[in-house]
Amino acid sequence: MFRSQIDKITLSTPSSSHRTLAAYVFHEVNGNKLVTEHVIDNNVLGLGRFIDETAFINKVNQHTHSTRGELLPHNVLINDQNSLVWFTERQCRHLWFKVHSHAPMQIRCHIPPLLFSVKHGQRSLNVFAMATNKRPTRTTRLYLAPFMNVSNDGHLCQGNAPLPSNVSVDSIPDIEKTLLDSSFTHLNYKLNSKHHHYTGNDKHLDFWQAKQGKRLFAHEMPFYKTLGQFIEDL
Q1: Of 73, 150, 165, 195, which residue is 20 to 30 A from 118 by alpha carbon distance?
Q2: pLDDT in tens, 128-151
Q3: C-alpha of 50 from chain center
C-alpha cells in the first residue's frame, strides 16, 4: 500500500445526495509518473494503492459512462465499458481465400453460429463458433471458429481490415465484415488436433471445398471453453 501525508484527510461533501467514491492522486518519483487510488469511506480518504494506466482509464470510463437505459438487440449479450459481446445465427455466404501458392478462390460456405467479442481498451476482436442458433447461456459450449486468420484464443488477425473507429452496437455489422468480408490468407491455429483442417492451409482449403453447400457440425470443430468460462476471463 502507498502511504503519504494525505492518507487521513477528511472530506466534506456539498450535499447529502452527493457521494464521493474515490480520489486519484498523481505522483512523480525520480521522473516516473505514478497514480494511486484512494477509496473514500465516510468522507475519509483511505490508504492509496498503485494502479496502472489501463486500470485508471477503465475507472474513469466506468464512472463517466452514461447510466441511461439502453434497449439492446436480442443478439447482444454484453455491452459495458469493457466489452461488447454478441452472437450471429447460422448463415450461408461466400468466403474469399487468397492463400500463398493457391489461386484466389471463392467458396460458398455454411457458416456456423458465431460469438463475437471486442475489448474496447485493446480494440481486439475474438470470434468463436457455436453448435446451435439458440441464444447462448453460460453453459453454451464455444468452439474454435473454422476460419483462417484466427488464433488459438479466438483472436482475429485483422490484417488490412481494421475495426471501426467507434466500436458500439451500431457498428456490429461493420465489425463482422472485418471477418466475413475479408480475404482468408493463412491458418493461425497452432494445434496438434484430430481436426486436420485446423492444422494446415492445404487441408483447410480442401475441407471447405468438400463442405461447399453442406452444413458444419460441432464435432468438426475443437472445443474451446464454455461461454461462462470465457466471460470470467474478459
Answers
A1: 195
A2: 999 999 999 999 999 999 999 999
A3: 26
Single-letter residue type at 97: F
pTM listed for this prediction: 0.72
Is residue 78 a contact partner of residue 87, using CB atoms and an 8 Å limit? Answer: no
Neighbours of 81 (CB within 10 A): 15
Length of the chain: 234
Using CB atoms within 10 A of its CB, is residue 128 exposed (0-12), middle (13-18) or buried (19+)?
buried
Quick one: CA dihedral 167, 172, 173, 176, positive or negative?
positive
Q: Alpha-carbon distance 85 to 173, whole Å?
A: 13
Residue segments in the chain with a per-residue pLDDT below the cut of 50 = 1-9, 14-16, 66-67
Output the pLDDT for position 40.
Answer: 80
Choose among 181, 176, 186, 189: nearest CA to 145: 189
